[in-house]
Design brief:
Helices cover 64% and strands 0% of the residues. With 224 residues, it is an all-alpha fold.
Length: 224
């Protein structure tokens, strides 16, 4: 069963949202198996999903070369829509699921496992990317929806763009806690995300873009 240090659970119950641990990592399960399947090495998503992404890119090329994809240039707006949808999903999942407020102790523990442990231990490398126990079923679900809405031919480029956006998010999230690229876009993402961690956990829910935070008025407020 899950075991969380008493002072952290007490903080959750008292609705304290800004509390940082001295340690670099935390173990949440006594069971080695449960601990393993609820954490992830930061390279794991790339090992799993880069081959999947390449497969769907290959499918797209095949459909173009065989005339199955009648309007190849349609891939460009389709990919842009997929990237936009990913950023919107990223925002809404973070804001309305990961930061869902509840009085249920079991839901509190679940939310701690999937998100608040990362807030307490932001440098824990095992909790910086989403574990396969979540991403693999989610991948099947998202491809299934893409297939139903777009058909196989157009689902291939759409889903490959969606996966690419997800992988960029996962790597940049890891990098924002452990690396420091000089790229201006990355620095903007990192600064925005770290404000969410260390200044205001009730705002700044977007990561790869702050567009949705600006649109839905959840930017971190500037101090006077």
């Amino acid at each position: 069963m899950i075991f969380i240090k008493f002072e952290l659970m007490e903080a959750i119950q008292n609705n304290k949202k800004l509390y940082l641990a001295k340690q670099k990592s935390i173990r949440l399960y006594e069971s080695n198996l449960r601990e393993f399947i609820t954490t992830s090495h930061h390279f794991t998503p790339f090992i799993i999903f880069i081959p999947v992404c390449l497969y769907f890119i290959g499918e797209t090329i095949y459909f173009i070369s065989n005339g199955g994809l009648e309007k190849p240039l349609f891939i460009i707006p389709l990919a842009l829509v997929a990237i936009c949808i990913w950023t919107l999903m990223e925002y809404f999942i973070h804001r309305f699921i990961f930061h869902f407020e509840t009085k249920s102790k079991s839901i509190e523990k679940m939310l701690y496992l999937i998100h608040w442990a990362h807030h307490d231990y932001p440098d824990d490398t095992k909790r910086l990317v989403v574990p396969p126990i979540v991403t693999i079923p989610a991948g099947f679900l998202l491809y299934g929806l893409s297939y139903l809405l777009l058909g196989r031919v157009y689902a291939a480029p759409f889903f490959s763009a969606l996966l690419t956006a997800y992988l960029i998010y996962d790597w940049c999230h890891f990098a924002s806690h452990h690396l420091n690229y000089k790229n201006k876009l990355f620095q903007m993402m990192k600064k925005h995300h770290l404000r969410h961690h260390f200044k205001d956990t009730d705002n700044a829910f977007g990561f790869t873009t702050d567009l949705w935070d600006r649109l839905f008025n959840t930017m971190v407020k500037k101090e006077n």
